[in-house]
Amino acid sequence: MADMLRCLALLVAFCSVPPRAAADPLRDRALELMAETPLIDGHNDLPWQMKTLFNNQLNTVDLNTLANTHTNIPKIREGRLAGQFWAAYVPCGTQYKDAVRQTLDQIDLIHRMCQKYPESFMFASSSQDIVEAFKQNRTASLIGVEGGHSIDSSLGTLRTMYQLGVRYLTLTHSCNTPWADNWLVDTPSESPEHNGLSDFGLQVIQEMNRIGMMVDLAHVSEKHKRNVPDRILKKVRDKKGIVMVNFYNDYVTCSETANLSQVADHFDHIKNVAGPSVIGFGGDYDGVTRVPQGLEDVSKYPDLVAELLRRGGMTVKLKPPWERTCSGSLERWKRCGTR
Q: Which of 88, 219, 251, 337 is most buried per CB count within 10 Å?
């Protein structure tokens, strides 16, 4: 009887083991693809979270255990994030005050993140650095400055930031600069001052082109309220640029709720209008308050890639269009001639 009870107990224990989830061959393919080709995201605001939550004191936080942000090291690993442009962002309220100093503080923070976690992050300032970091299974860490007010209308400051590793500049944030109009001039809340760019604004673009700093148009005016019009998508394609899709719910669906499939709809639209070569990822994690269901944090990139593969189809000899998306920004950067 005792033996029978032990056998029954063993049977009950065996039967109570939950069944494994059904395998998803496209997610498996996504992971294979991300092991072959670096996925690079164009915008993450973890540095701003470090400033607001910890006053940039990295000794008071552990990115291996940080739990209340979209981004930490375990989530980056799970998300197979090979390259990340960290945003050096300071608010528009710093314009005409200490925007340059505060931006330098954020640039310094990104460098210190790489120094504190060398096993996870490798500072990168060129496409070759991204490739090397990928070989070492580290996340290539790059810098973008989010807002033209950060240079205080100084080409010398622009060049200095380039020397510190900044590789793109967002021309405006949600405020006009003395040389560029922001997206709010397309709403009743602000009036245009420069009809786009002033003469000095054109000089800024020319200097960025000369030194090899990418031009980010994310917050500029074009009567689209942050969504890129089809005619501009085609211009981006013709100029061999890239559009990195933002995951903020309010931009994905113009409402407070969204899901992964609706984000993929944006990828589909861009592909249909301008082709897959212009598409990239620009999640804006830790810079937005609402993210889609299924894309709750940076660990979810493989799920999005799997959905894109599901929509794009699979072939034996040719990679589907979405397989080129993962490396799109790297290829653009090579062509940009960034040194």
A: 88
Give me the torsion for CA of 259, 295, 87, 38, rounded to 10°.
-120
Helix locations, 79-181, DSSP H: 99-116, 127-135, 155-163
Q: 196, 114 in Cβ contact below 8 A?
A: no
Stretches where the chain sits below pLDDT 50 are: 1-2, 4-20, 313-319, 322, 336-339
What residue type is 57 in one-letter code?
A: Q
Element housing 338 (H / E) = none
> Is residue 74 within 8 Å of 125, Cβ to Cβ?
no
pTM beyond 0.70: yes
> What is the DSSP track for 181-227?
-BGGGGSTT---SSSSB-HHHHHHHHHHHHHTPEEE-TTB-SSSTTS
Answer yes or no: are the C-beta atoms of 109 and 54 closer than 8 Å.
Answer: no
Q: Residues 6 or more apart from 24 whose CB is under 8 A from it?
A: 306
Alpha carbons 57 and 176: distance in angstroms, whole number: 31
Please, which residues bridge with residue 293 across strands? 259
State the chain's mean pLDDT as an integer. Answer: 88
Integer Cα distance of 321 and 319 in angstroms: 6
333: left (phi over 0), alpha (psi -120 to 50) or beta: alpha
Classify the phi-psi angles of 245: left when phi > 0, otherwise alpha if psi is within -120 to 50, otherwise beta.
beta
Q: How far is CA 45 from CA 125, 145, 146, 250, in A?
A: 18, 11, 10, 17
> Residue 117 carries which DSSP code?
-
